[in-house]
Design a protein that fits this description.
The chain has 215 residues and is an alpha/beta fold. The protein is 33% helix and 20% strand.
């Protein structure tokens, strides 16, 4: 079976997460907003009001994500359906352009901030050159995809039914796809569980890059 994963927001915890992914040869996409990456690392909010979430600085992005793919998460991370469509198109387009300028390759993937999209926004994602747009909806089967710009995952990585959903996909030799934010690993136990999860997945399936699923 095939395995795919993606992670949102370009945060400091991605460094630790990537160490685990590299240990097991796992592939992943990281969905970034270039406006959030400044000359220095910075934080402006707390997860669950306790854990500070730090954005990576711009200069370290290439090294941190070396060997992995980046995808577009817009430039400013807005609710795209709550703004004029021309402004949404600009945010989508400029987000992709700045990522491509920084990383030096074509950015094919997209993830909707807050999972917020409608038909007009999905059309804008396609028109900007993305091969898929990831939602936050969970479905039992991710293929066949009716609309690649409304591409759903099987689940979030902390879904309490994660392994049940994985076993369902495995039984049909399908593609299992999950997403999340690395900052959601809060405790050392969380990180140990995540390491165990990636280890088991790597034993039971083959990791693929998301754009390759649409080749």
């Amino acid at each position: 079976m095939k395995l795919a994963q993606c992670w949102d927001d370009g945060v400091l915890d991605d460094i630790r997460l990537i160490e685990i992914l590299r240990k097991y040869g796992a592939k992943a996409s990281f969905n970034l907003n270039m406006s959030r990456h400044h000359a220095e690392r910075h934080t402006h909010w707390k997860f669950r009001d306790t854990k500070e979430v730090w954005s990576l600085c711009k200069a370290e992005l290439k090294d941190v994500y070396d060997g992995f793919l980046v995808a577009n998460h817009t430039l400013y991370h807005p609710h795209l359906t709550q703004m004029p469509i021309e402004d949404a198109k600009r945010d989508i387009r400029e987000g992709r352009e700045q990522l491509e300028q920084h990383f030096g390759y074509a950015v094919k993937g997209f993830a909707y901030p807050f999972g917020d999209y409608n038909e007009a926004v999905a059309d804008a994602v396609r028109e900007a050159g993305h091969v898929y747009g990831r939602t936050t909806v969970s479905v039992a089967e991710i293929f066949p995809v009716e609309n690649p710009q409304a591409f759903h995952a099987n689940c979030h990585f902390l879904d309490p039914h994660f392994w049940e959903k994985f076993d369902h996909v495995k039984a049909g030799n399908g593609t299992f796809y999950f997403w999340g934010h690395s900052y959601e690993n809060v405790t050392e136990e969380d990180w140990r569980n995540f390491d165990d999860k990636i280890a088991r997945l790597s034993r039971e399936g083959e990791w693929v890059n998301l754009p390759d699923l649409f080749a």
